[in-house]
Design a protein that fits this description.
Layout (H helix, E strand, L loop, with lengths): L1 H20 L1 H10 L5 H18 L2 H10 L10 H21 L5 H15 L6 H32 L12 H31 L5 H19 L1 H9 L6 H20 L6 H16 L6 H32 L3
Length: about 325
């Protein structure tokens, strides 16, 4: 019983950390353009992430829970699952503290690999390969779509270019798109924390999504402000056309992956889309030193997750059978 409580507690803590981490990736553009204020933005994220996690995450939950270690017919120990989630939670929280958007999905998957290697579990490398291909393609596709949608919006609605101005119909559209991105975050990312419930056969997909969704919501409300402001104001100078294109492209890319049972990085999709919209305006609109720092975080996160999870599982396994 104690081991089960520990796993649930660590999973909820990880979901809380992710809820804070992805505020910028979901409502960064509406907030940057002053289409929505801080607390309405955080409240929208909390509500829509909970709904997405509870009702639209089931395919991705099964991919994480059964597709990486092949645990559809067997289960891993509660201790091994707790190590996976604890390491991913610690690294995500570190990135939150440093205000660096990264990919919790990639951190989680490489933590799973690290523990799997340490305790000699069967790793489904074909699933890993598919995920890596999706991760590589998603930001590239987002760059192209961000560029294209910005140019299309400029042609159809030239008034969205330049000064943000007073609240108007395009601001409302952008808030709706941000709400869609919040829903996508719940569907896409909750399994990082709660896929372990399926690995251990502790809960089914609905209960796993609900528990994780509650954690995401609490995280957005209690610690979501720093990353929201980081993405909104530090990466690229936005106008309405750019913001609308970037947030729409991100939600489109992520929900497409989710529909097929895979997950990709919210931040990578958004930053790729933002880079594309920036290129549509000229390179000087993109804050490239900030982007380079984020790229370093993406490289460091998965590698550190694999290494730390492997070492932790080996060390703990010397004392407790995992």
């Amino acid at each position: 019983m104690a081991a089960q409580v520990l796993l649930v507690a660590v999973a909820v803590a990880f979901a809380w950390s992710m809820g804070a981490h992805y505020t910028g990736a979901t409502m960064g553009m509406p907030y940057a353009t002053r289409s929505i204020k801080l607390w309405p933005a955080l409240g929208t994220i909390a509500l829509l992430a909970l709904i997405g996690a509870t009702f639209a995450s089931h395919k991705v939950e099964r991919t994480v829970g059964h597709g990486i270690l092949g645990t559809s017919t067997i289960s891993i120990s509660l201790g091994a699952a707790s190590i996976i989630i604890a390491v991913a939670f610690a690294l995500t929280t570190l990135f939150n503290y440093l205000r660096i958007p990264t990919s919790t999905i990639q951190i989680l998957v490489f933590c799973v690999i690290g523990v799997g290697l340490a305790v000699h579990l069967s790793i489904q490398w074909h699933t890993i390969l598919r995920l890596v291909v999706i991760w590589a393609l998603a930001p590239v596709v987002a760059v192209g779509l961000g560029f294209g949608f910005t140019r299309i919006i400029d042609l159809l609605a030239p008034g969205t270019k330049g000064t943000i101005g007073a609240f108007g119909p395009w601001h409302a559209v952008l808030v709706v798109v941000g709400a869609g991105a919040s829903f996508a975050m719940g569907a896409n990312d909750v399994s990082n924390a709660t896929g372990a419930f399926l690995m251990t056969h502790l809960f089914d997909v609905f209960v796993a999504g609900l528990i994780g969704g509650i954690g995401l919501s609490i995280g957005a409300l209690t610690w979501g402000k720093p990353l929201l402001e980081r993405v909104a104001f530090d990466i690229v100078k936005m106008d309405l056309a750019m913001a609308s294109a970037a947030q729409f492209v991100q939600a489109l890319v992520v929900l497409t992956a989710v529909a097929f049972g895979y997950f990709t990085s919210m931040n990578q999709a958004l930053v790729g889309a933002m880079a594309g919209t920036g290129l549509a305006r000229g390179r000087d609109t993109v804050q490239w030193p900030v982007v380079r720092g984020i790229l370093k975080g993406w490289a460091f996160g998965p590698a550190s997750g694999l290494a730390i999870a492997y070492v932790a599982a080996r060390l703990i396994g010397l004392v407790v059978h995992l």
